[in-house]
Amino acid sequence: MAPITRFAAFKYKPGTIDVQKRQVLDIIVKLYEENARMINYGPFGGKNNNPGGHDKGFDIGFTVEFKSKECRDEFNADEKHAQYIMAIRDILEDVFIYDFERGDYGY
């Protein structure tokens, strides 16, 4: 069972205040901590500081490594994760989630 790395990025809607942004991050970090048995590392992340201008307007990004696809799928199906998604929809303009297996370039 190969690990699965997740990269996630959030773009907040205009008018979202810093307190709301912090709450969103605190909740997802806690959710990953509660499911630590499924996680090899993470979440780790922060604000973009790349000067290239290719951030597409995303405010925050983070990575986490699941122990396996099965662990990732179990995490995604967790009721608390579903509740989290519903709770943040009103303040997010866009979300980018990209899961991959290291070294699997598809060819």
TrEMBL record:
Protein name according to UniProt: Stress-response A/B barrel domain-containing protein
Organism placement in taxonomy: Eukaryota, Fungi, Dikarya, Basidiomycota, Agaricomycotina
InterPro entries the UniProt entry points to: Dabb, Dimeric_a/b-barrel
Stress-response A/B barrel domain segment(s): 4-100
One Pfam family hit: Dabb
Gene3D superfamilies reported in the protein's UniProt record: 3.30.70.100
